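Q: I have 88 residues here and want to know how they pack in 3D. Can you give me a structure?
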Amino acid sequence: MLQITATELARKFKQMMNLVEFQGEELIIVRNNRQVAKIIPGPATMTALEAMSDLYRTLPEDAGATWIKDSREGAAADLSEVRDPWAS
């Protein structure tokens, strides 16, 4: 946690925001020897690809063995039972 004066923050704003964003640093802003604010990093974000990248590790070893066959059978399935979400 880094303590910085409001004046110093104003002068080095970009540098301080880079510390928060890229290094996860927390900043305590001080004015007149009193803590007036705290800047913390936002929540971590992931793309869908990053979130799904380790999914395969949760599956059993043989889970992919019939994947192509199963996916082709699913594509040919009867879609008449699918209801229209827009129908009233």
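Q: Anything worth noting?
A: Helices lie at 6-11, 13-23, 48-52, 67-75. The chain has a mean pLDDT of 85.
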